[in-house]
Amino acid sequence: MSPLIGSTRLSFLDRSRTREGHDGPQALRDTVALAGTAEDLGYHRFWVSEHHSVPGVAGSAPTVLAAAVAAATSTIRVGTGGVMLPNHQPFVVAEQFGVLASLFPGRIDMGLGRSVGFTDGIRRALGRDKGDAAAFAGQLTELLGWLDGTQRAHPQVHARPAEGLRVPPFVLATGGGAAIAAAAGLPLVVGDLRGRERLLRAVEEYRAGFRPSPWAPEPYVIVAGTVAVAGTAQEARRLLIPEAWSMAYSRTHGSFPPLAPAGRIEALAMTDKERGLFEDGLRGHLAGTEDTVAAGLELVIEETGADEVLVTTSTYDREALVDSMRRLARLAGLRAAAVS
Prior knowledge:
Layout: H1 3-6, E1 9-14, H2 24-41, E2 45-48, H3 62-72, E3 77-80, E4 83-84, H4 90-103, E5 108-113, H5 120-126, H6 136-148, E6 169-172, H7 177-184, E7 188-190, H8 196-209, E8 221-229, H9 233-253, H10 262-266, H11 272-282, E9 286-288, H12 290-304, E10 308-312, H13 318-331
Parallel strand pairs: 1-2, 1-10, 2-3, 3-5, 4-5, 5-6, 6-7, 7-8, 8-9, 8-10
Helix pairs in contact: 2-3, 2-13, 4-6, 7-8, 9-11
């Protein structure tokens, strides 16, 4: 085990992807079960995400799902990667996390993003528009004010039971997220591993502009990306195939399908455009044997100075996914090191 990897926290993000032959409710149950696996293996956090009206993704209510995950586990930190703040009123978000933190004290993280619904129809259904993303910094300030009791816009109103509770906030580095996190003095979540130059610029900007705050006295960087570990490079590549094909299909047909078995995808007669998008979707991730992934992780941590790595792996084969998580935990020196 590399000392650099061993000293870096390892966490997991699951996007509740649906699979062929399995509906949305099953995808949510799979997420909860996967959280138990992550806890058993010694991962530091388990986060869930927010997507609205996206075929193939069941995770539309992250705070609700986080409650289910926290109730099914006992030690692992649980949070959101993230709640898209422009989609919600900060007061309501504060209340939701206040309830979570009250029920599961010391275990809840509040990951926040600045994206809004990705189509006009979704934004209308949410009562939002594209420009709301520009208000993220102000919404973030308001939300933190509801938590620490410093908001003054509504002096007679209190976010109960959130006010006074310590719910660690994290900012996702989409758009101007890195600069916003730095100015607010908050931890940063930045990805993905495929855009290494962009990732390094975001981290540099964040560290250069960071202002210490009551929430974080110094910069804290979580690097997020897709990681797949298997016994051979070919097996690791097969873990990436379902998601790569789902993304390629969505960009050529306008529909985001459930994850399909890798073997069936490999047998498809793809168009040249589909093939190009599919192959591109397989590139740039950390995938391979334990030795290969360990070397890749060490380079990422060395280049970024990351305090933590947030792994995500979306694939059809759940047994292979769990095996990948176990192998990754072993190379990082987590509790799984004792598991064959």
